[in-house]
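Friendly challenge for the regulars: who can give me the structure tokens for this chain first? No prize, just bragging rights.
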Amino acid sequence: MKYTLILASIFLLCSNADAQDVCPEFANMVSVISEDGKSSKELKMERAVAKQKKKGIYRGYDNSVRLEGASAKVTVKSRQKFAFRPINPQVHPAQQIRLYPFQTKKDFRELVVGGVNTFGGSKNRKSGDNAILLNVQKIKDGCYEVSSTAPLPTGEYAFSLGGQGSSADVKGTSAGFGSTTQGQTWFGFSIK
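First reply, four minutes later:
Bragging rights claimed.
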């Protein structure tokens, strides 16, 4: 009887640990949770570059964020959930993570975030214009489950995570001289 209780206790501890192991190992990382919810795989950090593209003679320039490669290395299902470990526990996690749809080009994925017209006026787009709404639920202290509010269509996507002192919003991302993605970290995935 005593050994049965010990074995049952060990089994319960191991099964509870599996449910909690979906969280990324490090802060400011994202993992995709398996469909059964018992394991996860960390998304690969993407190399992001801010670019500026001329849009005709009088239409000015578009600023964009580009990720290397025509598609992400990780493919997920439309309703799959993610685990996120924020970098700053004093700030609400929903302010530290955003999800954006990217357009596929030949050698890269692109998100247009704003620009300027020929006469110096701003064509700045707000990040809320194309950010995908997210549900954020606490899994445990310092780890949150993240999912889209609606099924995601086939395409390329990336999470933008703000670093210490920076935002996950893409509003204000500049290109041209001194290109910057303002301390954001990007984690891409594909839905096929």
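Residues 4-19, 174-180 have pLDDT under 50 and may be disordered. The chain has one helix and 13 strands. Your move, everyone else.
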